[in-house]
Specification:
By secondary structure, the protein is mainly α. The chain is 77% helix and 0% strand. The model has no long low-confidence stretch (mean pLDDT 82).
Length: 190
């Protein structure tokens, strides 16, 4: 059975606690990842995730199933983030007190953070195994979001000759493939 079917069955039986808990535990890690990427701050993402969990808990009885539970959850998370960005103090003042929602949200945050930290450590270990110029290319393009022209300029040789941007793109593709293979070997990705 799908998550939607399972949660809807619990809602139909008026077991809102079990329905909300299942939804938050199942979709929570990806929603928290979305919020972390959106807000760029783990503590803010955690706060907004708690608000999302409360919104889901409160709104589930009225959810009309016109979209998937996953889509609706992303909508709730986005709206919680927008409210947070507009007025974080007002948002805290209107907080819905639900012990169960807070407990479930807290456990999802904790387990997701631990998994993300472990994965980040493993990826950092893989990056450390790369050659220096490969690490530089990865840092400049991914971490610092430099354009290909800027990367080519940074990687220019001692005499100032710029690396061809097309060649850099090709090197980058090979580097991504190399990292993907290493991550698969380490069991980090399927």
């Amino acid at each position: 059975m799908s998550l939607d079917t399972d949660v809807k069955a619990l809602v139909d039986r008026s077991d809102m606690e079990a329905a909300a808990t299942l939804a938050i535990r199942s979709l929570g890690p990806e929603i928290l990842g979305y919020l972390t990427a959106l807000l760029h701050e783990a503590s803010e993402a955690s706060d907004v995730f708690s608000q999302f969990a409360e919104d889901l808990w409160r709104g589930l009885p009225g959810f009309r199933w016109e979209s998937s539970l996953r889509t609706w959850s992303y909508r709730l998370a986005r709206h919680a983030a927008l409210r947070h960005k507009r007025d974080p103090f007002r948002r805290r003042g209107e907080r819905f007190e639900t012990t169960q929602a807070s407990i479930v949200a807290g456990s999802v945050v904790a387990s997701t953070v631990i998994r993300h930290e472990w994965r980040a450590q493993q990826l950092q270990r893989l990056r450390a195994k790369l050659e220096e110029d490969e690490q530089t290319l990865l840092i400049l393009r991914v971490d610092r979001a430099l354009s290909w022209g800027e990367v080519a300029e940074v990687l220019a040789g001692e005499e100032g000759e710029r690396t061809d941007e097309a060649a850099l793109r090709k090197r980058f593709e090979r580097l991504k493939d190399k990292l993907a293979r290493a991550a698969k070997e380490e069991g980090l990705i399927d």
